[in-house]
């Protein structure tokens, strides 16, 4: 039966959705997550022919999770575009493409349902925030959604070109972020199972050959990766492993439940209200691969400690896929359902769902405040040009803008620290001119084991506290300089005369009184 939605209805829905998303994104236009500067530093070194290294002249270290995002930003640098601007523009394009792909996928729905599904992404403050933070989230989301759309088409009309393109998207998604392997791998296995059940052996053979080709490419990449970095896994894996070694992590379960409670449940409830939609055997075959991908991805999430997973950064890349599945499931919805024929009731439902998406705006704005990186940007720019070495609690804007040789306390920029932890031997080898630490308590209180190791080193080498720069909500970054460093006086001069930052009173913020506070002569 013909849908109540005409072919032209999705266009205004897509336009309104795009304008709404751009309006939300503008609220976060000045925000960049500190982790994004890790990508920019690797991209900068790659673009300048220095390799995928964190510190120039040292051995390569895989301190990033997205090879594709590093490569794309390196291309932007080669084109003389600031990576902050380049990554934001690329993410905006990817996010808008997600909105229009979801709009097009909803073209057979009544206008109200199409608007609800599109608004779930377009009017989502978390999605706008995640798209503007400088990381690969929006691009990964687009690649996942594209993989799902192609999987539907492949089941309906298997074709060589579609299969090659589908595997290519899955391959790029894995390069975009490794955790997408769980989703795209599940989709591809689901496709193979569909062909097997339908006894389409000729199609299955070509599908298997195509898969073998891309698998071979993946193996070649892994061989290169192991040879280049000395490991198949990035340092981020070992950092997360050190945080929690259990397989099923309580934090991961809470993470998934919070997404269900604050984002997903109205759309699943809507699905229950629309059980009159015709569910055919053909749709079951089409939906099976995507459903398998979502299931595999959900199981994978149970094994991941959500470190830096604010606003469901690790889940949002599959959220539009869920909405796409709902759109295809309701494509044959009967127009005689009474509430769809009442414009005021349909409009009310659309308004309620749009309001549900927008209710997370305060949470997104709060995340922007909490994770602001402006103090480290200004400090890094102030230190630029000095040939220094630093230990930092956050490997982001400070090392990027200063250009200094750097090591972070968790080991994102060091395979040795990531696997074995920071110790006195590593600190002595680094011999930092400057140490920057953050303490979420608002004062310098070295009570955690790692903090005690660093504090002992500060006392042993007689470091002097030179500045406390305010981050947000009473949190400070503390800067300690080594007095016997040849850069000491210049470091002090530059860190104590930064325009645009708020300084804290070191005497009151340091609980370890054995650490001297610099005072001008």
Provide a descriptive summary of the structure in words:
With 521 residues, this protein is mainly α. It has 2 domains: 28-368, no CATH class; 372-509, D-Maltodextrin-Binding Protein, domain 2. It contains 23 helices and 5 strands. β1, α18 (397-402) and β2 (405-408) form a beta-alpha-beta unit.
What is the mean predicted local confidence, pLDDT? 89
- The shape is globular
Radius of gyration, rounded?
25 Å
Percentage of β-strand residues: 5-15%
Question: Which descriptors would you attach to this protein?
Answer:
23 helices; single chain; 2 domains; mainly alpha; disordered N terminus; five-stranded mixed beta sheet; 521 residues; D-Maltodextrin-Binding Protein, domain 2
List the helices and strands and how they pair.
Blueprint: H1 10-26, H2 36-47, H3 67-78, H4 83-105, H5 111-122, H6 125-131, H7 137-156, H8 160-176, H9 180-197, H10 201-229, H11 235-243, H12 250-273, H13 281-301, H14 319-329, H15 343-358, H16 361-370, H17 374-383, E1 389-392, H18 397-402, E2 405-408, H19 415-420, H20 424-430, E3 434-439, H21 449-460, E4 464-472, E5 475-481, H22 488-495, H23 506-509
Parallel strand pairs: 1-2, 1-3
Antiparallel strand pairs: 3-5, 4-5
